[in-house]
Every structure is written in C-alpha cells, then in structure tokens.
Amino acid sequence: MMKVVLLCGGKGTRIREETENRPKPMIKIGEKPILWHIMNSYSFYGFNDFILCTGYKADVIREYFFNYAMHNSDFTMNLKSGECEFYGRGQSPDWRVTLVDTGENTMTGGRVKRIERYIEDDNFFLTYGDGVTDLNIKRTLEFHQSHGKIGTVIGVAPPSQYGVLHIEKNHVLSFHEKPEIHQGNINGGYFVFSKKIFKYLSDDENCILERTPLEKLAQDRELCVYNHPGFWQCMDTYRDYLFLQELWKSGKAPWNSDI
Questions:
Q1: What is the reported pTM?
Q2: How far apart are CA 83 and CA 87, in angstroms?
C-alpha cells in the first residue's frame, strides 16, 4: 500500500492564537484535528498507511495517536488494575500510523528526506498538514502514473498568494513560492512523488522543498500539475480557521466524505 506522508512539524506562527500549546495540524475542526480530516480523506480512497513528519510540539501528536481510543471513545477504567473498557472502539479507523520526529526547526525538504527509509514503494503521496480539499485522490494518482514524471503537484486557484505554477501542457515550467504579485494556479500542497525525488533533497534542516528542489524539478521537466477546480482551503490564518469551523458546523463541508 502506498504511503501517505504528512508534514506536521511547522510552528504555525501566523495562527499563534491556536498553536501556542499544540502544533497546527492538531487544531480541531469540529471535534477532530484537521490532521484527522486530511487522513480521513485519503482513507476514503483506500490509502491508510501514514507517515507523520513531526517537529514542533511533536509529543501532542504522539500522545493523540498512542491514546487514540481514549480520545475518541467513552470508556470505563478500573483505577486499581488500570484496565479499561472502551465503548464504540469498533469505530476506530484501520490506519497504520508511523510517527517520525524530523526535528523542531527542520524545513519541509529536510523533513521529507528524513523519512526516506520508510518509503518502500515506487511512489508516495505528500501533503501539508493544514489543508483540506474535495480532491479525488484516486484520479490524482492515476494522472501521476500516466505521465511517468517524478512529481505531480495539485494546482488550485484560490484568491490568496502561495507558490505559483507556470504550466505548459501539464508540465510545470517553473515554480515560484509566494511571489508578491501573481496570476494563475498555485501550489495546493498535495503531491505525488516517485522515490527519485529524494535525489533532489537534503536532510539538512534548511532544505526547503518549495525552493531549490521543486524549482530544479520543474527545470528538468519532471514536475506535472493536476488541476483541481473544486474546493481547497488551507488553514494559514485565524480567519481561515474560523471559515473552516463554520463550514463544518453547517454540515456541508466539501471535504467531508460522509456527505
């Protein structure tokens, strides 16, 4: 089963109201962390083997998954014996979760390089731990397999400024992260890579995936874009957080696979 690598180590400084005591992927949308929502989207398409690249306040993520049943079930505990009886435990997802401490100050490229030893298949998914979408994961993988290049990045077109993709016939000609002014698609933070991507990366903590590695990949014509015209939203600011909360409370969250 293909691995799903999730970048969960950033400090989330632009949403400090919520990240003072927890990493951004653990901010809750409804009753679940946004990280859970992302994982659930992959699980809907049958991808249940996750690698979490942790860093800032890694123990919060580790404790959540180590005690997943406790966090997501009612239970009765015998204080003398320490035995617990969980109710509703059958609802727990059939996920395999590998947690890797990739360093508190490591940048995105360094984090990915540091989990190389856990990638066994020819391809793997990579996603930031702070964005939700109604992207069809299966079709994205099929597109990646069809072109035979090293990488696929999801192109989205929200009204904000992120990494800009310059495209010609599904090939990314250049990659520029967060320019001051731009027009066109942006980096949606959902990728599919072959293992060859590791040749472009360094385990140096200053290696930024969105800089030299993706820029070089684009120059080598090894990066293609899968355009996604549907819903996509990252949780970059407190305003984004409130927006996602309202969508979830409405019962019409586009990324909710139960709708």
A1: 0.87
A2: 13
